[in-house]
């Protein structure tokens, strides 16, 4: 088993910078793997992709609500299973949203839409590895829940 952790910070627009084990890369474009530890492992990139994908949803939704979004940071933690294939046991997300005029129901709506409808990366992962999340608005925890795409996922 191995513990993984990713911190992803909104850069404005829909850009996110992810940091994994001291490696930084922009999530606006594709990351190419060199295979010589010159960057994050594929599973770490997947963890960052969950953060960036859901973060892009949340930032986009909040921007469409015309609120003053100061920051939207998402962190994720997981452990992998033993054996092969080694997969995420459970992904734990923390959404840290900051904005002086953002109401709790707006932040909750943005994250819930991402975690039930829009985030394709999370939808792909959640079928094998449960995703739980906690939403913080201006440093106050306002909701915890589990990602559930069963109503919207049509294969």
Compact summary:
This protein has 155 residues and is α+β, with helices and mostly antiparallel strands. It contains three helices and seven strands; from the N terminus they run βββαββααββ.
Written description of the protein model:
With 155 residues, the chain is an alpha+beta fold. Helices cover 29% and strands 31% of the residues. It contains 3 helices and 7 strands; from the N terminus they run E-E-E-H-E-E-H-H-E-E. It has a 7-stranded mixed sheet. A hairpin with a 5-residue loop joins strand 1 and strand 2 (16-20). Helix 1 (42-64) packs across helix 2 (104-118) and helix 1 crosses helix 3. It is globular. The relative contact order is 0.16. The model is unreliable at 29-38 (pLDDT under 50).
Tags for this entry?
single chain; alpha+beta; 7-stranded mixed β-sheet; 7 strands; 29% helix; globular
* Beginning-to-end CA distance, first to last residue: 31 Å
Give the biggest sheet.
7 strands, mixed
Beta-strand share of residues = 25-35%
Computed over alpha carbons, the radius of gyration is 15 Å
Q: Widest sheet: strand order?
A: 3-2-1-4-5-6-7
The count of strands amounts to 7
Write down the secondary-structure element order: EEEHEEHHEE
The secondary structure category is alpha+beta
Uncertain runs? 29-38
Range of helix content: 25-40%
List the total number of helices.
3
Write down the overall geometry: globular
Mean pLDDT: 87
